[in-house]
Structure formats: structure tokens, C-alpha cells
């Protein structure tokens, strides 16, 4: 088994290394789907050079990374060659994959143990739905493969977008959550939050993981205070790195929250706020950010309190769909978590549909972009249409997997047969 | 007794003011020069000089000085003001250097007095006031398109030696899209003491002025001094009109030109209020280029040796002319093409790259001189053109040149333009390229101008240089106020501030007819997630008998 992992990692590294040194690197890095204003490496370079010249990069419009990335990238650029920097990105990606593999392994193991414990309560005849011993071994490998060979993950790594680091922090958060390391988990969550704000919603699944009956409020307070403390430390440290100035807050977080840059990306914000009536802009910015940040946190936490990992995946997915500057790196991250729910696939109805749409939009996106921006025979609506379809297919995927989960739960409790009082019945949400 | 004293005092005071009031003079001059490309350059300069100090009460009473302009200058604490309105591009390579440089569109740069409290506010108000005075859209000048060049611009007049030059009192802005027309010429003429009734300004007929390849109106106000030791303060206003005629349009058959052909009327007598009214025709090319003959004969001929180059001018004094007359230039030989001899320094600028995603601005600066030249390159990038400073490169024949100094302030969307100033040394007889990358930006739909696909104008860059030679140079020396003062005025260096081409940037546009559709569609997608998630989280799965299925609003009969 370990040999498979090593082989996959080596293959994936070679693939990334080859792409990074091919002519495709620049093409990939220039794609709007991969590089957004908040993660593009070209902008990091710009910030780093401005930092060298003693000009505050946060005064301008180009640089929106945290001071930590600024200082580190500046140090890297002075001490490392471009090849080495590219290797750092690859290593980070591989590490993320390994963390996800371990997370999946821990999760599957736990799921199996939980099933063994609760097996007595399941309805008879539902053995087909059970997690088998084999399921402990294979899904983690699938997770690993889905991450390492996912084009949505390879592209950001080759383009050296900082989504690679954000994904790494997210993976670490999930791993420490599954491994029940409370402090490390809070630390990683805080780091992921200061890097890209949206992971803050993961505090809900983390709470569900560490919650012990009878200590609900205490656990909650401890977790929140840990996270807030770490975030405060990070923000303060960043201010120190930036020479004691808090200018970066507006340029990093204000930029993500108020969405001033309307460059197209795979999300819903850009065209919506291009065409928005000025009077309603603040209202809709707030509505969309609430939708992306915490609208679904509480209701889903109630519904999925038995399955915090699924809650974490759904929240990550929803923020990847609805965040202000999403890139395919965010999409690839939650897609590669899906094999953990191999046991739900039986109840998923939209798989084929979603797959076709993902492939279709991935091909159509660059095509209509070319028609719009280069050939000028199309217009913005074409690309907007593709991003809408891309978002819709992802939404279908998420709702489908949640439906599958509740259907399976229902089947485990009530059996596979849908018969009521001897007559054939239909399963509906009511 | 007291009343008598007051009257006496007022009398003394007013005599004092009036003696000061009449210490002004007005000069009108016209320089006509045949450019080596065959175009005819005519440069009008109306100079008002006034021996007075500049303060708020100076312009309460004026004589020859335009009071409307004076009041604005006094009110906004202006030390020096330069405004130009230009249509067309000055082609340095073929035309040499003009007397006053101006970029396409409108340009305004102002030095405020060092005691100005709120420069930003005065700048905005001044631009608004000038906009009304000149009927130009200068009111669009605000902080988001103005900057404070640190090296390129210095006061051209006299400055207080005890106050070191502090560029925080300087503001510079261009409006490259400004279209210059009759409505700007008329207010400019109204500022003249004789309006367009008498004098050289009668030649400025809109129909002919706007037929030109290039025309530029300018107002230049500064403080200077008179006397041997520069002790008497003088304020100076130069109103300029530069016109470049293409003779192949004016006179397609031969190369002859005359005042009547260029301006539609002959010259009458000068403005009676003017101390001097003169026309100068540059006849230097009679020795080197195509030979022409002037009728009537000039009143005198002036020789000027400047910076190692000799020029000859035919001088006509029109102050005492009694009736309309014409100045005619007849060429001896037809169809002789003069050799174009490029000036020591000229520049081209363009946008490279294709598509509307990312591009590159390339500025080519050509040094044709035999020694290296030091230049200051001032880039004026609007906020909607985010540039990458780290891609800034200066190359000469694919070899990198290290700038001597770089100043950069990153811009901010809708707030501040990108400011870049680079000091360079161009090797002798070399062309260098200054280039950097930028991104095309996506604006909100209401920020696009009407006819959005026409594109956005990007103002000219300014290249400042002290030329060591006076070849092709016609500018005035700093201490001079009149064109005739520039003759035989050899200097250490000859300041040129070249304005490059302005650029047009076609930003990608959204579909302007779509706001409702886009808002509806995007909200629908959000609702697509909200609906099922709401169902999943609030409802529970139940088995329902097939025949007990809840009926819809419209129960369709089953077969």
C-alpha cells in the first residue's frame, strides 16, 4: 500500500515539475480561472519587488497577500532560484495530498468503528449500504489520487498560485481535526482563516468533533477563544512584519470582502457586481458574503451533527463556490475529498450530469474567454454563462451528496424497501 | 478735517495704485516657420507683462491684464500656471521642437504658493474655475487623475530662494480625451486686450484654425523680474496659439503659402494697446533648403546665433500698418523636398500585445546626438491601467540599462493614478526602449463612457532633457518673455519636455443591456443552492403512499 502512495507522489511531482518547466506554465499561470487577484504569483512578485524598493505594496492595487507571504516570498526570491521555488510549491502540494490521505484514513477507520458499534440499530437487509473492511483502505488512496492527479489542483501548483498554501492549511486543519489535536487544529484553522477568511466556517465541524456531552458550552468557548487568540496573534505578527502598520488589513481582507476588482473568475461575483446598480451594491455585497461565509453553517451543523467531516466538506465546497475570488484550486480541493463518501455514491443521482458539466465548462470556459477577449467575437455574457453553469453543477454535486447522506441514513433506519402498510410508497421530504 | 484727510489719503493711495496699474505692457508676436516636412508652423504669442507683485489684491484693478483670469489666480494662491488645449500630435521627428510643448488633449500644471493650506482643494477648485473660463472639461481634473511629479517639473519663473522647491505644491494632470474646438478659442481671444477686433488675433479664424494638422492653445502664467539685477517683480502671462498647416491641403498645387491662404484674411494694423506687434518669418531655410521669396520685403532681417546654429528671421512690424496686407512666400523651384534632419532627441510610445487581457507599454527614446543624454521619464498611467513595476525594463539593443533613479507610487482604483518617474542616461546615438506590463481592467458598467468600445485615453508621458545643442530648438530662454528675446540667447542647456503620443486602451466591456438579466441569473444560482439546502436542513424524509401524494395547485386528470 505504501508503495502505491510513494509511486503516486513521485509521479505527481514529476508531472508538476515537467509542466512547470514547459511552455504551458505561463499559459496556465495567465488563466483567469487559476490566477485571481488574491492568489496570483505575478502579483506576489510585484509586491516583493516593491517591498525591496521600500514602497508599501498595500498602497497599491496589485498586491493583496498577507505580510507573511510578502516577507517569505521576498526572502525566497533573494535566496532561492526559481526552480527551487517551484519545488517548494510541488512539495507543499504533495504534503497536502499526504495530509488528506491521512485524514481520509483516520476518517474511514472511525466511520467503520462507529458502524460496528451502531450496527445493531440498523434495519435488516441494509448490508449493501454498510462500510466494508475494504472501504477503510481504498477511499484514502482515491482521495490521494483525486488530489494528486486533479487538473484543478495541478494547474494552481504549476502556476505557483498561493492557493497551494491555502489548501495546505485547510488540509492540515482537517487532518488535526480528524486526529483530534485540538490546539494544532485551532492553529491551522486560524492560519487558514487569516490566509483566506472563508475557512472560519470550519469552526462548526471542529466544534462537533471536539464536543463532549455535558461540556457543550465549555468546549465551544475554549475553541472560540483559541481560534480568536491565534488569529489575533497572527494579525499582530503581520502588522509587525509590515513595520507596525495596519494598512494591510484593508488591502488584504477589505479587498476580499468588498470585491472592488471585477476581473472575471470562476465565481459569481464578478459579472453580478459589474452589472449591479450602484445604489444596491453594499446590500448585495453583504448578502453574497453572508451567503458564502456563514449562512449555511448553523442549519447544516444541526442536520449533519453526526457527520462533522461531511459538514466540513460541504462548508468548504460552498465557500469555494460562493467566495468572492474563487479559483479552480479551491474547487479541486473539495472535489478530492469526495471519495471519502464512496459509501454514499449509491444514492447519488446527478453524478453523470455533474461530471459532464464540469468537463464541459472546463473546456468552454477558456474557449469563450478566447472568443471574448482575443477574437472579440463573443461578449462577456458567454463567459458569464459558463461560470453560471460551473457553479450550478457544483451546487448540484453538493446538494446531491447531502441528499444521498440523508437517504442512506433513512434507509439504514427503515430498510431498503419502500413499503408503507403493504403498499408501495414514495420517499419525499416533508 | 478728518474727512479731508481721508480724501487726501485716498487720492494719494489711488494715484499710487494707478501708477502701478499702468506699469503693464502687451506684446503680440507671430512666428512663421516652414518645417522641414513641408508643413508651416505658425506660433502666436500674446504676452502681457505687469510690474507688480502677486497677491490677492493685485487683480482688484487691472488694465491690460485679463481680470477674469487674474482673479482666479489670486484667489487660488497660484504661483505659476500652465494650461494647454491641443488637438493633434506634435511630430518631433519631422518637425523639430515647438516653442511651447503640449500633449494631445488638455494639460494643466500648477505651482501653488508655499503658504497654500489645502493644495488638494485649491487644485480642484482652480480646475473648475479654469474649466468655466476656457469652456474646457478641466472640471474632470481631480485627485484620481492628478499627480505630483517630483523631478520633471520645476517652476519656470522666479521662485523665492529662501523656500527650497517643494514639489508637494505642484499638481499635474492631463485630459487626453479633451477635444479642442471653437468654444475654447473664443474665450482665449476674449482674454486679450483687443479681443479679436484688432491686431494679430484677427488672424485666428475658427474655420482656418481648426483646419490644421495640429493646433494648440496655451496659457502660461509665471512670476519673473526685470532690471539688471532682477529686482523688480513682474508677472507674466503668455497666451499662445500654435498651428501647423499641411500645405498639401491648403495649397495642393505648389508649395507657396501666404497669410491669406493660411488664415483667410490679410494682416491689418496691430492692436493699439500693444507695445509691439511683429511678425517673424524664419528664412533660414533659404540657405539650406528650398529657396523662397517674400513679398512684401521685410522691414528688417534679424540674425540669431544660438547653441551653435544660425537662424535668420524676416521681421515685419505691423503696429503702424495702415491697411490690410498679405505676406506671400513664393518658392522658386517646384516639388523640391527638403531633407528631414531629426532633432537630437525624440520619442515614440505605443501599446504592445494583443487581446484585452494584458499588454505592454513601450516607449522608444531616440538619442541622435553624439554625446550621452540624461533624461527624466515621467509616466502618467491612469488608475484603470494597473502596471507591474517589477516588469519595468530599460533596454538598448537588447542590453539592459540601469536607471539612475526611479520613483514609483502605485496607483489605486478610482483614487490615484500610477506615478512613475525614471532618470536615465541614453548612450550616444542610441535608441532605448522603456517598457513595462499592465493588465486590462474590468470596470463597473456605469463607469464606461458612452461609446465604450472606442476605448479609454491614456495621457502622454513627459520626457525632460537639457539638450546641449540648439539645433531645431525654438523655445524661449527662462529669462525671456518675447520671441525676439530668444535670438542670440545661447544657454548652457536647452530644456525640452517632449510629450509622447497619448494612447488609446480598449478595455473589455460588459453587455450594457444585461443588468437585470445578470442580477436575476446570478441570484437564481444562489437560490438553487439555498432551496435544496433549506429543504435538507428543515425537512425530514418520509414515506408517503403513492395515492396520498399531495396534489399540486393544478390537479391534472390522470389517464
From TrEMBL, chain A:
Biological processes annotated in GO: attachment of GPI anchor to protein; GPI anchor biosynthetic process
Localization in the cell: Endoplasmic reticulum membrane
This protein's pathway: Glycolipid biosynthesis; glycosylphosphatidylinositol-anchor biosynthesis
Classification via InterPro entries: PIG-U
Membrane topology: Multi-pass membrane protein
Record keywords, A-Z: Endoplasmic reticulum, GPI-anchor biosynthesis, Membrane, Signal, Transmembrane, Transmembrane helix
Signal peptide: 1-22
UniProt GO cellular component terms: GPI-anchor transamidase complex
PANTHER family in the record: GPI TRANSAMIDASE COMPONENT PIG-U, PHOSPHATIDYLINOSITOL GLYCAN ANCHOR BIOSYNTHESIS CLASS U PROTEIN
Protein name per UniProt: Phosphatidylinositol glycan anchor biosynthesis class U protein
Organism (species): Bemisia tabaci (Sweetpotato whitefly)
UniProtKB/TrEMBL annotation, chain B:
Swiss-Prot/TrEMBL keywords: Signal
GO cellular component: GPI-anchor transamidase complex
Alphabetical GO biological process terms: attachment of GPI anchor to protein
Taxonomic superkingdom: Eukaryota
InterPro entries: PIG-T (IPR007245)
Pfam families reported in the protein's UniProt record: Gpi16
The name this protein goes by in its record: GPI transamidase component PIG-T
Record organism: Bemisia tabaci
Amino acid at each position: 500500500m505504501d508503495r502505491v502512495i510513494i509511486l503516486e507522489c513521485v509521479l505527481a511531482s514529476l508531472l508538476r515539475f515537467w509542466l512547470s518547466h514547459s511552455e504551458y506554465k505561463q499559459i496556465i499561470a495567465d488563466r483567469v480561472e487559476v490566477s485571481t487577484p488574491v492568489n496570483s504569483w505575478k502579483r506576489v512578485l510585484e509586491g516583493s519587488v516593491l517591498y525591496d524598493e521600500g514602497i508599501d505594496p498595500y498602497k497599491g492595487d496589485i498586491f493583496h497577500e498577507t505580510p507573511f507571504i510578502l516577507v517569505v516570498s521576498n526572502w525566497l526570491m533573494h535566496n532561492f532560484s526559481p526552480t527551487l521555488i517551484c519545488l517548494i510549491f510541488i512539495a507543499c502540494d504533495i504534503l497536502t495530498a499526504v495530509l488528506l490521505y491521512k485524514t481520509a484514513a483516520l476518517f474511514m477507520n472511525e466511520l467503520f468503528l462507529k458502524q460496528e458499534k451502531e450496527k445493531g440499530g440498523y434495519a435488516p437487509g441494509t448490508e449493501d449500504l454498510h462500510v466494508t473492511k475494504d472501504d477503510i483502505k481504498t477511499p484514502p488512496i482515491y482521495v490521494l489520487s483525486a488530489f494528486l492527479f486533479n487538473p484543478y489542483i495541478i494547474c494552481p501548483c504549476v502556476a505557483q498560485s498561493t492557493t497551494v498554501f491555502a489548501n495546505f492549511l485547510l488540509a492540515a486543519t482537517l487532518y488535526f481535526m480528524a486526529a483530534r489535536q485540538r490546539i494544532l487544529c485551532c492553529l491551522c484553522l486560524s492560519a487558514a482563516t487569516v490566509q483566506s477568511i472563508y475557512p472560519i466556517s470550519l469552526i462548526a465541524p471542529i466544534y462537533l468533533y471536539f464536543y463532549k456531552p455535558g461540556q457543550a458550552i465549555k468546549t465551544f468557548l475554549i475553541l472560540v477563544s483559541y481560534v480568536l487568540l491565534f488569529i489575533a496573534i497572527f494579525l499582530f505578527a503581520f502588522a509587525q512584519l509590515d513595520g507596525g502598520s495596519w494598512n494591510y488589513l484593508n488591502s488584504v481582507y477589505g479587498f476580499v470582502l468588498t470585491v472592488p476588482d471585477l476581473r472575471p473568475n470562476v465565481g459569481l461575483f464578478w459579472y453580478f457586481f459589474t452589472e449591479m446598480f450602484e445604489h444596491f451594491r453594499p446590500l448585495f455585497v453583504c448578502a453574497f458574503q453572508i451567503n458564502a461565509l456563514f449562512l449555511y453553517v448553523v442549519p447544516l451543523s444541526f442536520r449533519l451533527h453526526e457527520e462533522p467531516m461531511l459538514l466540513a466538506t460541504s462548508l468548504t465546497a460552498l465557500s469555494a463556490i460562493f467566495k468572492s475570488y474563487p479559483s479552480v484550486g479551491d474547487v479541486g480541493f473539495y472535489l478530492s475529498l469526495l471519495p471519502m463518501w464512496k459509501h454514499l455514491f449509491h444514492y447519488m443521482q446527478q453524478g453523470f450530469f455533474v461530471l459532464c458539466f464540469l468537463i464541459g465548462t472546463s473546456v468552454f470556459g477558456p474557449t469563450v474567454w478566447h472568443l471574448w477577449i482575443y477574437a472579440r467575437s463573443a461578449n462577456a455574457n458567454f463567459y458569464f454563462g459558463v461560470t453560471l453553469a460551473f457553479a450550478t453543477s457544483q451546487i448540484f454535486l453538493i446538494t446531491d451528496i447531502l441528499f444521498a447522506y440523508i437517504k442512506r441514513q433513512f434507509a439504514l433506519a427503515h430498510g431498503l424497501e419502500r413499503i408503507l402498510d403493504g403498499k408501495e410508497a414514495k420517499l419525499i421530504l416533508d | 478735517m478728518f474727512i479731508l484727510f481721508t480724501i487726501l489719503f485716498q487720492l494719494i493711495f489711488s494715484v499710487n495704485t494707478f501708477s502701478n496699474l499702468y506699469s503693464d505692457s502687451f506684446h503680440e508676436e507671430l512666428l512663421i516657420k516652414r518645417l522641414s516636412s513641408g508643413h508651416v508652423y505658425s506660433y502666436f504669442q500674446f504676452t502681457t507683462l505687469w510690474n507688480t507683485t502677486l497677491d490677492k489684491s493685485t487683480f482688484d484693478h487691472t488694465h491690460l491684464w485679463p481680470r477674469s483670469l487674474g482673479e482666479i489666480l489670486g484667489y487660488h494662491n497660484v504661483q505659476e500656471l500652465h494650461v494647454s488645449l491641443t488637438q493633434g500630435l506634435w511630430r518631433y521627428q519631422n518637425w523639430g521642437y515647438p516653442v511651447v510643448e503640449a500633449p494631445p488633449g488638455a494639460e494643466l500644471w500648477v505651482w501653488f504658493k508655499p503658504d497654500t493650506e489645502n493644495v488638494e482643494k485649491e487644485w480642484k477648485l482652480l480646475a473648475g474655475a479654469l474649466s468655466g473660463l476656457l469652456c474646457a472639461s478641466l472640471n474632470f481634473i481631480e485627485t484620481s487623475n492628478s499627480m505630483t511629479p517630483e523631478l520633471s517639473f520645476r517652476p519656470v519663473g522666479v521662485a523665492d530662494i529662501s523656500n527650497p522647491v517643494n514639489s508637494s505644491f505642484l499638481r499635474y494632470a492631463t485630459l487626453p480625451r479633451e477635444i479642442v474646438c471653437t468654444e475654447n478659442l473664443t474665450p482665449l481671444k476674449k482674454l486679450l486686450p483687443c479681443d479679436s477686433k484688432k491686431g494679430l488675433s484677427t488672424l485666428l479664424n475658427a474655420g482656418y484654425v481648426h483646419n490644421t494638422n495640429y493646433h494648440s492653445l496655451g496659457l502660461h502664467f509665471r512670476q519673473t523680474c526685470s532690471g539688471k539685477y532682477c529686482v523688480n517683480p513682474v508677472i507674466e502671462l503668455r497666451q499662445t496659439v500654435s498651428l501647423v498647416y499641411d500645405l498639401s491641403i491648403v495649397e495642393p498645387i505648389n508649395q507657396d503659402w501666404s497669410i491669406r491662404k493660411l488664415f483667410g484674411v490679410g494682416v491689418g494694423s496691430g492692436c493699439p494697446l500693444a507695445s509691439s506687434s511683429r511678425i517673424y518669418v524664419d528664412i533660414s531655410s533659404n540657405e539650406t533648403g528650398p529657396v523662397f521669396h517674400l513679398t512684401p520685403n521685410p522691414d528688417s532681417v534679424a540674425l540669431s546665433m544660438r547653441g551653435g546654429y544660425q537662424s535668420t528671421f524676416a521681421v515685419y512690424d505691423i503696429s503702424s500698418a495702415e491697411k490690410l496686407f498679405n505676406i506671400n512666400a513664393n518658392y522658386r523651384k517646384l516639388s523640391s523636398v527638403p531633407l528631414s534632419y531629426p532633432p537630437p532627441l525624440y520619442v515614440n510610445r505605443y501599446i504592445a500585445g494583443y487581446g484585452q487581457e494584458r499588454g505592454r507599454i513601450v516607449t522608444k527614446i531616440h538619442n541622435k546626438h553624439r554625446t550621452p543624454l540624461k533624461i527624466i521619464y515621467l509616466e502618467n498611467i491612469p488608475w484603470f491601467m494597473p502596471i507591474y513595476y517589477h516588469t519595468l525594463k530599460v533596454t538598448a539593443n537588447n542590453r539592459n540599462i540601469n536607471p539612475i533613479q526611479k520613483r514609483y507610487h502605485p496607483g489605486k482604483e478610482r483614487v490615484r493614478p500610477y506615478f512613475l518617474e525614471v532618470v536615465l542616461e541614453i548612450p550616444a546615438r542610441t535608441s532605448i526602449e522603456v517598457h513595462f506590463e499592465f493588465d486590462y481592467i474590468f470596470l463597473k458598467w456605469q463607469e464606461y463612457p458612452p461609446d465604450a468600445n472606442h476605448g479609454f485615453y491614456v495621457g502622454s508621458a513627459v520626457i525632460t532633457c537639457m539638450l546641449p545643442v540648439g539645433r531645431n530648438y525654438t523655445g524661449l530662454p527662462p529669462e525671456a518673455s518675447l520671441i525676439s528675446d530668444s535670438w542670440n540667447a545661447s544657454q548652457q542647456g536647452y530644456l525640452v519636455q517632449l510629450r509622447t503620443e497619448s494612447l488609446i486602451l480598449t478595455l473589455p466591456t460588459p453587455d450594457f443591456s444585461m443588468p437585470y438579466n445578470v442580477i436575476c441569473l446570478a441570484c437564481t444560482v444562489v437560490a438553487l443552492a439555498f432551496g435544496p439546502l433549506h429543504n435538507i436542513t428543515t425537512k425530514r424524509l418520509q414515506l408517503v403512499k403513492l395515492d396520498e401524494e399531495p396534489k399540486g395547485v393544478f390537479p391534472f386528470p390522470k389517464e
